[in-house]
């Protein structure tokens, strides 16, 4: 666990559409671009080992892509190198952040000055969702997985802690980048679960997503 005093003012960021990391979640990544290989090497030299996952967004009518205002920082907790020099890493979600500004510099990857205020709950204990009805939720999820031709470990779903279940599904289900951003910005686990249910129900009514499972 980290506390607020451990969080740096500036972190490297990895803009990746459709990739969602949530506090206390785990995100595996396959790193092969030279600039991000350099980012991982620099990250390993720091005490905090934090990387900010953030989604780019297109500015309407311009084709320009900017970073979303909010991302989530993960601590590099898993690392292996392939024979051809690629990295397989795991980020463990620590806290969301708000981008203050991009920081100019000589690194080939992007860095941002960030603000952690407002996300203190991310550093705390596992969240609870008092209104969660697991049986109803799993029934809805079963219909969604069947419609999307997805498979899962249903026994694990039945036994998983509520936060782990909701956050894992938010990260893994094939929603659009905009929908993933809404799940990230949900202020509480209850709100995230309600958003997740809305997205699943929309998909079952004929909505679609261009994203693929990560």
UniProtKB/TrEMBL annotation:
It comes from the Bacteria. SMART domains: LON. Gene3D superfamilies: LON domain-like. InterPro entries: Lon_prtase_N, Lon_prtase_N_sf, PUA-like_sf. Residues 11-204 form the Lon N-terminal domain. This is LON peptidase substrate-binding domain-containing protein. It comes from Fuscovulum ytuae. The lineage of its organism: Bacteria, Pseudomonadati, Pseudomonadota, Alphaproteobacteria, Rhodobacterales.
């Amino acid at each position: 666990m980290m506390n607020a005093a451990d969080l740096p003012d500036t972190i490297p960021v990895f803009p990746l559409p459709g990739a969602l990391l949530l506090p206390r979640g785990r995100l595996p990544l396959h790193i092969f671009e030279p600039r991000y290989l350099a980012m991982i090497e620099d990250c390993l030299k720091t005490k905090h080992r934090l990387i900010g996952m953030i989604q780019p967004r297109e500015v309407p009518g311009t084709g320009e892509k900017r970073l979303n205002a909010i991302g989530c920082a993960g601590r590099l907790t898993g690392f292996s190198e392939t024979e051809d020099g690629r990295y397989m890493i795991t980020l463990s979600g620590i806290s969301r952040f708000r981008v203050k500004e991009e920081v100019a510099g000589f690194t080939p990857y992007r860095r941002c000055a960030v603000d952690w205020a407002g996300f203190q709950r991310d550093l705390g204990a596992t969240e609870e969702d008092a209104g969660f009805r697991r049986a109803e939720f799993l029934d809805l999820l079963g219909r969604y997985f069947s419609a999307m031709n997805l498979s899962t470990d249903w026994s694990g779903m039945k036994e998983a802690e509520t936060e782990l279940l909701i956050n894992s599904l938010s990260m893994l289900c094939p929603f659009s980048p905009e929908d993933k951003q809404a799940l990230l910005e949900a202020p509480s686990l209850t709100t995230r679960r309600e958003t997740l249910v809305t997205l699943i129900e929309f998909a079952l009514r004929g909505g679609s997503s261009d994203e693929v499972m990560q």
